[in-house]
Each structure stands twice: as C-alpha cells, then as structure tokens.
C-alpha cells in the first residue's frame, strides 16, 4: 500500500528550501560534493514521473578537472568559470532510442511498439521527459541541502561529441552545476508573475 | 540575504511525499480542489528556475464540467475518464513569443534581443522550460498534499485551438490532473534504473 499525504503540506522551511528561498547560483563555496551525494540525488530524481516510465535522461556528472576543462571549453564564455569552479556539473542528456529499454522499464504492456518508426515523436518525448527529469534533479539536489546553477549556453553538438561520442543516439539537453552556492554570487531575484498574468481557470 | 540550507536534508517524510511514495494516479477521490489550492501551486512553481527567468508556461486550469468535457473529447480514449473525474486538469502550455515579456521578467539586461529573429531557438527554449515548469507544478502540488496524474496522450493542435485559440503563439505541452488520488487506481510501481545504468561520473 502506497503512503498518501492528503492535505499535508511540507513545512514552511522545506518549501523555502526547495522553492521559495532557493536560488540559481553563479559561484560556489570551496566545498566538494561526494559521489555518494551524486548517487543520492539520482535515487530521488528517478522516482519522479515520466511518460510510460521512459526515463530518457542519460547523465554525465562532470567532476574531474580534465572533464570540467573540456566542458568549460565548449560553453559560452560567461559559463566557463562557473563550470570550472563548481564541484560537479551534470550534463543532462537524453536517449532518442529510449524505447529500447521499455520492455523492462514498463513491463506490463508492449510500450516499445508505440514508439517504433516514430523518431520525431521519440525526440519530442525524450526532450520533454528529460527536461522533467532535469527539474527533478534540481529539486532533489535542493532537498538534500545542495544548490544548483542550470545553464543552456553551450555548444550542444560539441558536448554530444565529447561526452556522448560512443552513444550517437544520446543528445545533451541542458547542464546544471551543483554544489554549495556562494551567497556573494547572486543578485536580486528576478520578478515572478502574478497568477492572472499567465494562468486562467476554465 | 537569501536563506541557505547547506547540508540540511528534508525529512524522510517530506522526501517520501514529493518523490519516493508519490505516484501518478489514474483515478480520483470525490473531493474538490479549490481555486485557492490552484493559486498556491502556482505561487510555489513560479519560484523554480527558468532560463533568463523566461517563465514560458501558460496554464489553463480546467475545472468546469464544460471545459472538462471539451478537453476529454480531445484526449486519447484511455485518458478521457481520468480528465472527467479529476477535480482539475492543468493544460501546461508555452508561449513561443515569451521573449516579449523579458523586459520586465529579466530587467537587468536586454534579454529580449537574444531571442529576436530566432523562432527555432525560442520554440526549443519554451518547450524545455515549460517542461521544467510542469515538473515544478507536479512537485509543488505534491508538496501541498495533492496528487498528480500527468498525460501526453491528447490532440495538441485541437487543444491549442480549443483552449489557446485567441493566442496563436501559445502551444500545449502536456496536461496533468490534480486531486486526491484514489489508491485503488494504481498498480505496482514500474522499476527504476540503478545509477550505473544511465549515469556516468567523469
């Protein structure tokens, strides 16, 4: 029996931690992130929903100096220092041929056949659902007491070649540095829209 | 000064609530979701990071019987009953011309000019970032004691016409029912991958 939490809100502190006070950091304290922490992030994020449990995200966690230098060299100039100084930067990619894994990821029906011959639909599904998984990654990292700095300013094709070169169906979506954010590296928070601006109840 | 939560993990119960025990529901208890709850979800989700604070999500929260019937009629057969019986179903769309809002959403630089004349780049940015926002929506709803049932099986073009007809640059991404999940409507959880299957530390 699954646990339910109907009408139970997370504490104000927990909501602050993952949503209201969390910020995207541009600089990092000199404090490492362990492989155990990286694993813990994944153990949470993989529980988040994806369409037909497709789990299309393929992630390279860039931690070594050599890998950081390679990734930084393929990023926009404004992102290079962030990547070099972050304890770890996740390259969140996706597998266009995720459907090959569906026989074990979604075992109760033949979901693989839904996607065969539909490369355009697979690209869209992989991009949408790996983006969802990237969001789960960020909120999972925050939930564990870490900070994030997501970025899309890099050369996707060059990153694919450098980090997914042996898997031509794996493509990069976005990247996200993870560590202990330096409070001196952030500015005033950008404004957020009122409900009525971008929402409608029908 | 922003609050930081370095090395503070959310409680085991909170992690269960938003990640580990949460499920995608196929059926709903007969218990309504108020407009105040819908607003509360948005107040949390809008705090999540988007690229250049672009906030491309445009959301129609389908609550009336008439709107539910219209949306259900445009969904795959297996999703119709779910939409009709859910207290509310959010249509998470995005604005391809989100850059028109950047002068106030990202006021400290001329971010609008980065996107002008690049409709393909805007489409990709809007799709990626509205997907992130859809994930924030789901985790925000769970954090407030609600359950989710995301779906992508519907006729996007027909939903755009029916619900975003007066805004031709608004496109649907995916939909998500929200309410109090009926534990009888879920099956055994689909398997989740081990870290080494889809991850690599470089």
UniProtKB/TrEMBL annotation, chains A, B:
Family: Belongs to the nitroreductase family. HadB/RutE subfamily.
CDD domains xref list: RutE-like
Gene3D superfamilies: NADH Oxidase
Keyword NADP among record annotations: yes
All copies of domain Nitroreductase, residue ranges: 24-180
Organism field: Qipengyuania mesophila
Entry keyword set: Flavoprotein, FMN, NAD, NADP, Oxidoreductase
A single MF term (Gene Ontology): 3-hydroxypropionate dehydrogenase (NADP+) activity
UniProt-listed NCBIfam families: PRK05365.1
Enzyme class: oxidoreductase
Enzyme Commission identifier(s): 1.-.-.-
One Pfam family matching this protein: Nitroreductase
Cofactor: FMN
UniProt protein name: Putative NADH dehydrogenase/NAD(P)H nitroreductase K3181_02070
């Amino acid at each position: 029996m699954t646990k339910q939490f109907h009408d139970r809100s997370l504490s104000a502190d927990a909501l602050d931690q993952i949503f209201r006070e969390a910020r995207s950091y541009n600089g990092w304290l000199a404090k490492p992130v362990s492989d155990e922490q990286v694993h813990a992030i994944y153990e949470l994020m993989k529980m988040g929903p994806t369409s037909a449990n497709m789990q299309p995200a393929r992630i390279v966690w860039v931690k070594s100096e050599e890998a950081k230098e390679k990734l930084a060299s393929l990023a926009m100039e404004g992102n290079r220092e962030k990547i070099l100084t972050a304890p770890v930067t996740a390259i969140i990619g996706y597998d266009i041929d995720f459907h090959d894994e569906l026989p074990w990821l979604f075992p109760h029906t033949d979901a693989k056949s839904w996607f065969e011959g539909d490369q355009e639909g697979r690209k869209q599904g992989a991009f949408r659902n790996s983006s969802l998984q990237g969001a789960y990654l960020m909120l999972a990292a925050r939930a564990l007491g870490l900070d994030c700095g997501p970025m899309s300013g890099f050369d996707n094709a060059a990153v694919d070649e450098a980090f997914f070169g042996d898997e031509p169906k794996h493509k990069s979506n976005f990247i996200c540095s993870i560590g202990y954010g330096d409070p001196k590296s952030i500015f005033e928070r950008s404004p957020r829209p009122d409900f009525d601006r971008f929402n409608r109840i029908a």
